[in-house]
Amino acid sequence: MSKSVSKAARATSLPSSKLRPQPEAQPPRPAEGLSIAQVAEQAGVSVATVSRVLNGHENVRPATRDKVLAAVDASGYRVNELARNLRTAESRLLLTMVPDVGNPFYAEIVRGIDSVARQHGYFMLLCDTGADPGRERSYFDLLRRRRADGAICLDPATIQQALGEASSALPWVACCEFDPEMGVPYVGIDNYKAAGDAVRHLLSRGHRRIGLINSDVDYLYARQRQQGYLDALTEAGITPDERWRMNLNSLDYEAGASAAALLMQQPHASNAAPSAIFAVSDTLAIGVIHGLRSVGKRVPDDVAVVGFDDISLAAQVDPPLTTIAQPMRELGETAARLLLQRLANPLANVPGVLLPHRLVIRRSA
Amino acid sequence: MSKSVSKAARATSLPSSKLRPQPEAQPPRPAEGLSIAQVAEQAGVSVATVSRVLNGHENVRPATRDKVLAAVDASGYRVNELARNLRTAESRLLLTMVPDVGNPFYAEIVRGIDSVARQHGYFMLLCDTGADPGRERSYFDLLRRRRADGAICLDPATIQQALGEASSALPWVACCEFDPEMGVPYVGIDNYKAAGDAVRHLLSRGHRRIGLINSDVDYLYARQRQQGYLDALTEAGITPDERWRMNLNSLDYEAGASAAALLMQQPHASNAAPSAIFAVSDTLAIGVIHGLRSVGKRVPDDVAVVGFDDISLAAQVDPPLTTIAQPMRELGETAARLLLQRLANPLANVPGVLLPHRLVIRRSA
DNA sequence: GTGAAAGCGCTAACAG
DNA sequence: CTGTTAGCGCTTTCAC
């Protein structure tokens, strides 16, 4: 899912021979305060007619339409959407609330959301909540205050639940992180199964002491993945050791690194330290590899590592990361569609959706 | 201007046991259409008074204020900002246009912007332009249509120039990428000097064949860094070889990886391939390290690598990346402040500002 | 096919 | 201190 190119005027763009070719023609009058009324006057029609052509209504005589259009771009007029929004009672803005914009996993999802939103004439307002309930609530209030028409929430389930109670009627959907019981439309993956897949891969490579570096248990996905991990181990006849598990309140590289170092140095019964680690996000896993290296362990020879998400970076680190791939782009796109659907038909029963994940085997495990 | 809502999500749409438990307590009345008038009535005062307490004006008797406040939260009323915005003629939305939200460098800057925007009562609308002039223009139009009060642009200078000609009067500022000649307020670093610093570091380590993996020349910073690279080499008595230089139209890891592989395999006069590479972004540099490894070169033993930006990941890869640190957070914060300043006083002469960079030496070079 | 007029919900004079 | 009132710029009946 790589970006794209967008060459524009590349290559030929010389240092700056002439920075302003535009000999200062008369651009359509920047026109600060210019209202539909002036355009109407200039075109010799009524405001109603101008409004009609602006909105592409059918019932306007071509000749009239042309007159109006001419007046519009002679004057450089742009509709004032503030007024339009008030009148039509919609802002055409969609909120997206993420715990951390800097996380590449969320970044890709956000792209998916943005792309379908724009496709449908909406803009996306990105909100970095830092997983803070207070900020979350204040952003959510934008819905009630009519600043936004709908919202997509990727924040921890614990936060969502609080939100849901206070406002189950508001138009919002959950993405990646969701509680099916909550009655809010959602899209995500089967975290329990995915975690099991990761662990079973490690098992199949002969590992029996498998560590889990997990995120905050505020996240339902963290609890689900942990359960998947636990059950997979148990099914293989292994009794999970508590000392193999850690919960972090951050997904940063640094957090993963120090957690891994800690995990390996912990007093384990002689050589009973984990021979493999399952980290619930790639950022964590990349940190883990770094942390392992810092305490003299090699990956995958001494310790195998599997991550989660399959961000684009996963293939680039050394060793390339074995991981569970989530369809990030689609997750975002689907969330946006679900929301749009809800907006179009508030009464319809919007379903929950699960998208498929898959195990990507590279060299780290 | 499409508005239909396309199909829902396909894939495994869960059976959806019971999608709407909806305990239906009685929260303060979700109150869809509730206007200031009803609150006024309920409080036994006029709309003007309600408005006054809502906006924290002084001249309201405490008793009256309390009555109003009581009515407000008894009814669960929230102001309709659509109306407020129209009346006050401002949207309190700031646009941020970036070429790629997924790039960790931009992500951190965006955080800086968002933080000071919120601090000042603004929200930030994030726009991923993909460095596409068309999308850029359409986003920019949001300013004219009053959807946003101001904008911060991080897109290529070539695009900015087109924008500037069409609308130098609009309230916007440039960040990281800027043309001082353009008369638009900006914040960034001294790219020429920074690139020189990177190259001089390599020189001091004894390298004389230094490659440059650069981004698209649409970016002024790319041209400036190239010049810094060229001059540093020349000053050291080295004649730069054209075959040491590459321009990429992407900053993705993959792009860096394949460029590096290509650079090393190119037919150089016998063993005249570069012994060091300067990449103009950390993402590129990380890709470069990966690409080098894929053709059997070790870093830094066979080839040294220095990057640019100092994203958090730089310290986590193997080997940790030597790089030029940019004060990303401050860049964003400063850009936001400049814009706010311009908004507060449109006539004031807002200056350009350069922030300091610094060389961070780690193990890759 | 086109125009006149009534608001959308709020803020800000201006009176009292 | 509080209430009345006039719009902000647009869309949308309802007449003609």
From TrEMBL, chains A, B:
Residue numbers spanned by region Disordered: 1-32
A Pfam family assignment: Peripla_BP_3
HTH cro/C1-type domain mapped to chain residues: 33-64
Domain of life: Bacteria
Gene3D superfamilies from the UniProt entry: 3.40.50.2300, lambda repressor-like DNA-binding domains
Keywords, in A-Z order: DNA-binding, Transcription, Transcription regulation
SMART domains linked to this entry: HTH_LACI (SM00354)
Keyword Transcription attached: yes
A Gene Ontology molecular function term of the record: transcription cis-regulatory region binding
Domain HTH lacI-type, first and last residues per copy: 34-88
PANTHER family assigned to the protein according to its UniProt record, in alphabetical order: HTH-TYPE TRANSCRIPTIONAL REGULATOR GALS, LACI-RELATED TRANSCRIPTIONAL REPRESSOR
Protein name: HTH-type transcriptional repressor CytR
Organism: Paraburkholderia sediminicola
